[in-house]
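pasting for ref
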Amino acid sequence: MAEGPQDPFSLEGQVALITGGGTGIGLGIAKAFVARGAKVVISGRREEILRSQARELGSQADFRVHDVTDFSKSESLIQSVEEEHGDLTALINNAGNSLKTPTENMTEEEMLGVLNVHVLGAFSLSKFAARRMMEHGGGSILFIASMTSLFGVPYVTAYSAAKSAHLGMVRTMATEWSMKGIRINAIAPGWIITDMVRKNVISDPERLAKVLGRTPMNRFGEPEDIGWAAAFLASSAARFITGVCLPVDGGASIGF
C-alpha cells in the first residue's frame, strides 16, 4: 500500500472504492479520503446522485452505478475501477438498507432482503477485492458495522443480524488475509445524522430520548466523523491494526 513519505496519515497514491458512497456516511468517508489525497470511486444504484456528488468531490473522484446484490457483477466492478484508476488499495463496505418492524411480524423475504445487501454484498466484493490486493501487494478492507453489532436494539433484528455478521467476517478474514498484506477492520458508528437516522430515530421521540440519554456526548455525530476514522484505518498510520471494530459513537457503546 502506498505511504506518504512523511505523513503516515496521508492517502496519496491510494485508490478507494466506497459502496453506498453517494449519501450519508459513505459520502462522509469519500470526502475524508479525497481530503487526504486518495482517488475515490463511489458506487450505488442512483446515477444522478452519484454523478452529482462525484462532481462536487472534484477531480480525484469518480463513480460507478452498481447494486451490491448483483453478485455476478462484483468482479467486473473491481476490474473497471482498476482499469481506469490503478490498483485498488481500499474497499469500504458501506452500502446498506434497514427494516424497522417487530420481529414476530418479519417475513423471511424481508430478512433476506437485508442480509443480501449487508452480508452477501460485502462478502462478494471483499472476496474479489482481496484477490486483486494479494496480486499487487496488499490493501485495506473496511466494514461499516453498527451499534447493533454490539448490543440489542429493538425492532431491527434483520439489521442487527447483518451487522453482527460483519464482525465475524472481519475477524475471520483478518486471520486469513493479514499475512498477505490485507488489513480488515470495521467501524461501528453511533447515531450519525443520516436519512436513516432521521427516519428511524429522530422521528421517534421515545427512541430519540433513549439514544441521547445513553450517549455521553449527548449529541449525534456527523458523517465526516466516520470519514476521518475510516481514513485513519486505511492509512499507514494504522499499519499494525487488523481485525478490530472501532466504535465511533460519542461513547454510546459504554454509556449507561
